[in-house]
Amino acid sequence: MTNEKTTLSSPADEQRTPLLKRLTGANTLWIGLVLLVLVAVFGAIRPDAIFQVTTLQFLLAETAVLLVLSVGMTFVIITSGIDLSVGSVLVFASVSSAMAMNAVSGGDATNAGWGVIAFGLLVAVVSGAVWGLLNGLLISRAKIPPLIVTLGSFGAAQGAALLLNNGSNVSGIPDRLNRTFGSGTWFGIPNIVIVAAIVTALGALLLSTTRFGRYTYAVGSNEEAARRVGISVRGHLTKVYLLAGTLAGLAGFMGNAFFRVAVVTGHETDNLNAIAAVVLGGTSIFGGTGSVLGTVFGVFIPAVLEKGLVIIGVKEFWQPIAVAIVLVAAVWLDQTRRRARNQR
Amino acid sequence: MSEPILELRGINKSFGPVHVLHDIDLTVNPGEVTALVGDNGAGKSTLVKCIAGIHPTDSGEVLFEGQPTHIKGPRDAAELGIEVVYQDLALADNLDIVQNMFLGRERTKGGLLDETDMEQAARKTLASLSVRTVKSVRTQVSSLSGGQRQTVAIAKAVLWNSKVVLLDEPTAALGVAQTRQVLDLVRRLAEQGLGVVLISHNMNDVFEVADKIACLYLGRMAAVVGSKDVTHGQVVELITAGRSGDLGIARPEAATI
């Protein structure tokens, strides 16, 4: 550099800003520590039960679906939006994918091959994407608040899923899908977890190293500034909700593989779990800051609490209470920091 | 005197029945600071927005580097090299200085953001403007003072090889020391050969940095005078009455004919 005279810190100094730091942001470190402490505490009390391969496998596999939902939710919340519809979209995608696979296999897809499975994946992803696109268009074009739009699609997608099969679960998930993808493992890691990890890694890269990610932060931080520099704010919001819907569709397919049945109930609070995970992970509900890595920690804290409390013999009903305390504390911390900053 | 970089001839602009700008002529020379003064509602901001392509003009000619051009939108203006620093800062608080300076025009390598390259370019631009007040270009904008933010907004405008920078009251919300910094910066922009248009209500600021002063009065260009040829009082008269001695628009009765 030729401009040593300035007091700007030298490039050497700043290049040390590691990629990890950019991926995480400030809150993430703390929330990661919380997760570590939880694991350590439960592990110290019952090392035999916690550090068992099956316990860990099950913990990871159960969390995989929620993780995929939460990655999409991270993008949405960074734009200072919200998506209440992810759980319902998941159910819709899961039901329509299972029914589509049955339909092309003459009523029962249990023995279907890879072609049918690929078709099922396509149906799940596309039906998720359609709901996401609908959300995005209503929010960005019709200017209806995200809370209301996605509250609407939360109900509508659930209703549509129930209508599709008269309110009952859809069985007939291909065995081959369940064996390889749902319950199969690779060096001890459930395959479903590997898929979730890949999605998460791609999401993290998208958010921190591409224009798409940068615009997501910009829109959440100052919409007007984004518009003035020529970013299409409407287009970008549409894409973000489209992404969340698509990932919900994928999550629906993963659920099919894991449970061997497309269930129409049990996902009513997925949206709240995903929001809680994202916020726990240090993403501000006011938009503009957050990270995918934080969301990963945020997903595992409730999961570890639940498993851990059961294993050490505390009634599992304590788990939501414990999560609630951590969640409210996290948001309170975020707000205190903001207030301190704005008072300057 | 070098050739004007931006020249407006007979610009008219109405909002419905309200005729906001009457036959405005204005030339902006490279290396000069042109102050645009006038009372509230005189049409300063409208004129800037017309140049920036936010409002289309009704009639009149715009010449950029001697060539007639039609600026249809902010993108056209940016392409020509006209940048605007708005009064209410258009920075994203949660992003750092580099991210803000490149917002909307990020440099990429193989589809990914080229952070190193952008960081170096940002640092170089700030250094070329002798900005010494920010510690690191990776500081979040939210933690900067008002003056530093304004500095970043101005540096952002010059990053793009811009040739004309329009500043809408850049010192309006700043303290004494910060105003000082920003005025120095405005001066340096001109020294680098840019055409600078500065809107300001503060006569001290205007006399300190401007080479010439363009006074708008009720949507008309009352006078364009060299800042060394006039006094505070004369400029104030031009702003409030549209004329001062021999300067300014002719007597109202003559003007109505």
Task: Summarize, please.
With 344 residues, chain A is mainly α. Chain A has helices at residues 11-15, 19-24, 26-45, 47-50, 53-78, 86-104, 114-140, 146-164, 175-182, 191-209, 211-221, 223-228, 233-259, 270-280, 292-311, 318-342; strands at 185-186, 189-190.
Give your account of this protein's structure.
- The complex is a heterodimer of chains A (344) and B (257).
- With 344 residues, chain A is an all-alpha fold.
- Chain A is 74% helix and 1% strand.
- Chain A has one domain (29-39, 47-334): Orthogonal Bundle (ABC transporter involved in vitamin B12 uptake, BtuC), CATH 1.10.3470.
- Chain A has a two-stranded antiparallel ribbon.
- The longest helix of chain A has 27 residues, at 114-140.
- Chain B has a six-stranded mixed β-sheet, with helices on both faces.
- At the A-B interface, helix 1, helix 11 and helix 12 of A face helix 2, strand 8 and helix 4 of B.
- Chain B: It comes from Lentzea aerocolonigenes (Lechevalieria aerocolonigenes).
- Chain B: InterPro entries: AAA+_ATPase, ABC_carbohydrate_import_ATPase, ABC_transporter-like_ATP-bd, P-loop_NTPase.
- Chain B: Pfam families: ABC_tran.
- Chain B: GO terms for molecular function: ATP binding; ATP hydrolysis activity.
